[in-house]
């Protein structure tokens, strides 16, 4: 008796979707996947979509794993769904199984989430329910006031840091749109979010100092933070929220300032 090979339903659905896109291909976070016919697929960075393939460096599976580990500056990428996947490479999968492994090297564990996200009722865990399970160091996240939880999620999950479409919610914060992020959903808070939530609550509990800032200086403060965020210090670990130069810490402060910023003056307005 012959036994049919098992085909993972997530992989099968994914391949069907790629095939349905023909030469337009499918964008999966920062990777563009195009069917080459049969069971062959081409993967490259989406920003290299129109590049001549002879100008791109051919990688094997092990090369993809190395590629995803660090950004162009050589810094470790704790969140593989963060923008900043390096460009200039090309990979050809010669079977469905190779395509599956390639995706798992570039974006570990995302295919099951992608598949689950397509169901009528994706298995999403809201922030409150997720933190209710936390113990030890992270128990403190259970007491985040709703507004702070929303601000922390806004800071942590912005497309500047993560291209997964956040489907989980917290009071006062709607899910992300596919357009702003990608087709890959985030079904529950990740460790980076949990750590930032802990840091946010610790800061909330600290004694406060009063600082008189002129209304007109608030945009200066916001611009300084934006500039620092656009030019992150490569020596600061993304996961270390103890570091004052941590980008998510800076984004958290920026989100606190944002509601206080004056609305933009119409173009041409003078004092
Ligand atoms: S919790 Fe936020 S930062 Fe973490 S994977 Fe989900 S969307 Fe990305």
Q: How far apart, in Å, are the first and last alpha carbons?
A: 86 Å
Could you give the order of the helices and strands? Answer: HEEEEHEHHHHEEHHH
How many runs of DSSP E, i.e. beta strands? 7
* Cα gyration radius (Å): 21 Å
What percent of the residues sit in helical stretches (DSSP H or I)? Answer: 25-40%
Strand content: 5-15%
Q: Would you tell me the structural class of the helices and strands? A: alpha/beta
Are there runs of 5+ residues with pLDDT below 50, and where? none
- Which small-molecule species are bound to the chains here? iron/sulfur cluster
Q: What count of structural domains? A: 2
Q: What can be said about the biggest beta sheet?
A: 5 strands, mixed
**Widest sheet: strand ordering:** 1-2-3-5-4
Average pLDDT, rounded to a whole number, is 93
Number of helices: 9
Shape category: globular
TL;DR?
The chain has 271 residues and is α/β, with parallel strands linked by helices. It has nine helices and seven strands.
Protein model, in words:
- With 271 residues, the protein is an alpha/beta fold.
- The protein has 2 domains: 9-117, Gyrase A, domain 2 (2-Layer Sandwich); 127-260, no CATH class.
- The chain has 9 helices and 7 strands, in the order H-E-E-E-E-H-E-H-H-H-H-E-E-H-H-H.
- The chain has helices at residues 9-20, 61-69, 96-106, 110-117, 127-132, 146-157, 191-205, 218-230, 247-257, and strands at residues 26-28, 31-37, 40-45, 57-58, 89-93, 165-166, 185-186.
- The strands form 2 sheets. The protein has a 5-stranded mixed beta sheet with strand order 1-2-3-5-4.
- Helix 6 packs across helix 7.
- The longest helix has 15 residues, at 191-205.
- The mean pLDDT is 93.
- Bound molecules: iron/sulfur cluster.
- Iron/sulfur cluster is lined by residues 81, 156-157, 161-162, 164, 166, 186, 189-190, 192-193.
């Amino acid at each position: 008796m012959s036994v049919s090979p098992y085909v993972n339903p997530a992989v099968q659905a994914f391949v069907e979707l790629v095939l349905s896109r023909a030469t337009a291909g499918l964008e999966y976070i920062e990777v563009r996947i195009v069917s080459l016919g049969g069971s062959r697929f081409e993967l490259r960075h989406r920003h290299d979509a129109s590049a001549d393939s002879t100008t791109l460096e051919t990688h094997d599976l092990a090369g993809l794993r190395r590629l995803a580990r660090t950004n162009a500056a050589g810094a470790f990428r704790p969140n593989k769904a963060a923008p900043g996947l390096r460009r200039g490479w090309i990979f050809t999968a010669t079977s469905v199984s190779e395509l599956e492994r390639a995706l798992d090297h570039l974006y570990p564990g995302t295919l099951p989430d992608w598949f689950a996200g397509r169901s009528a009722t994706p298995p999403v865990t809201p922030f409150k329910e997720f933190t209710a399970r936390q113990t030890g160091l992270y128990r403190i996240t259970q007491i985040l006031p709703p507004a702070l939880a929303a601000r922390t999620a806004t800071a942590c999950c912005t497309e500047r840091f993560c291209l997964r479409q956040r489907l989980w919610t917290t009071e006062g914060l709607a899910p992300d749109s596919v357009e702003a992020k990608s087709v890959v959903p985030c079904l529950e808070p990740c460790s980076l979010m949990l750590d930032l939530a802990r840091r946010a609550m610790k800061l909330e509990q600290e004694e406060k100092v009063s600082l008189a800032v002129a209304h007109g200086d608030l945009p200066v403060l916001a611009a300084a933070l934006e500039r620092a965020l656009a030019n992150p210090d490569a020596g600061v670990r993304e996961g270390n929220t103890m570091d004052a130069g941590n980008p998510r810490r800076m984004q958290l402060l920026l989100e606190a300032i944002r509601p206080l910023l004056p609305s933009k003056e119409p173009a041409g307005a003078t004092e």
